[in-house]
Structures are given as C-alpha cells and as structure tokens.
Amino acid sequence: MKAEEIIKSGKGSIVDVRTPAEYQGGNPEGSINIPLQEIDKRFDEIKSLEEPIVLCCASGNRSGQATQYLSQKGVNCCNGGSWLDVNYLQNQ
C-alpha cells in the first residue's frame, strides 16, 4: 500500500520523526512524535504500533531515513514525506 492509501483509509499509525519543538508547532492528527535520533531506542514502542506505519517529518528526508532503518528491521512502514502532506491527506 502507498502512504496516500494508508493515510486516507485511517488505518495504521503515523509517526512524526521531527524534534519535539518542531512537532509542537503543528503535526498530523493522531500522530506520535518519535524523533529520528530516538528511533533505535524506542524500537519496541514502534513495534507495538498498529502497522502499516507512515513516517513523516518536515521534508521527507528524515522520515526516509527512518523508513529505511525500520524496513530493514522488518517493520511494515512507508515514507509519508512532509507532515503537511500527511495532514492534507488526512483532511481530504
């Protein structure tokens, strides 16, 4: 499934990998903030989330890194790109 389909279906989980300060400035509804630098430390928490997981950030770069890392660990996830794009798709 593509990120757009997952977001529009309302299934799975959305993880925003920006810093807490960035996240507080606005975020996708129902998302969880797990900063990129904490992904490995919070892996068990991530594994407990409903899959598929859509990852987002400011531009899609950090969420791309997180997607690559988590995919290699067997997590069903995809890069949703910018949190603004995810937010837009949620509200369509």
Description of the molecule:
The structure is a single chain. With 92 residues, the chain is an alpha/beta fold. The protein has one domain (11-50, 60-90): Rhodanese-like domain (Oxidized Rhodanese, domain 1). It contains 5 helices and 4 strands. It has helices at residues 3-9, 20-24, 43-47, 61-72, 83-90, and strands spanning 13-16, 32-33, 53-57, 77-82. Strands 2-1-3-4 form a 4-stranded parallel sheet, with helices on both faces. The radius of gyration is 12 Å and the shape is globular. The model has no long low-confidence stretch (mean pLDDT 96).
Task: Identify the notable features of this structure and list them briefly.
single chain, 92 residues, alpha/beta, Oxidized Rhodanese, domain 1
In short, what is this structure?
The chain is of the alpha/beta class and 92 residues long.
The termini sit apart by 18 Å
Secondary-structure content class = alpha/beta
Spans of 5+ residues with little confidence (pLDDT < 50)?
none
> Spatial order of the strands in the main sheet?
2-1-3-4
The rounded Rg comes to 12 Å
CATH superfamily: Rhodanese-like domain
What name does CATH use for the topology? Answer: Oxidized Rhodanese, domain 1
Overall spatial form: globular
How many strand segments? 4
**Main sheet overview:** 4 strands, parallel
Domain module count: 1
Please write the CATH class name: Alpha Beta
Helix content bin: 40-55%
Mean pLDDT: 96
CATH architecture annotation name: 3-Layer(aba) Sandwich
Proportion of strand residues: 15-25%
How many helices in DSSP terms?
5
| Order of helix and strand elements from N to C terminus | HEHEHEHEH
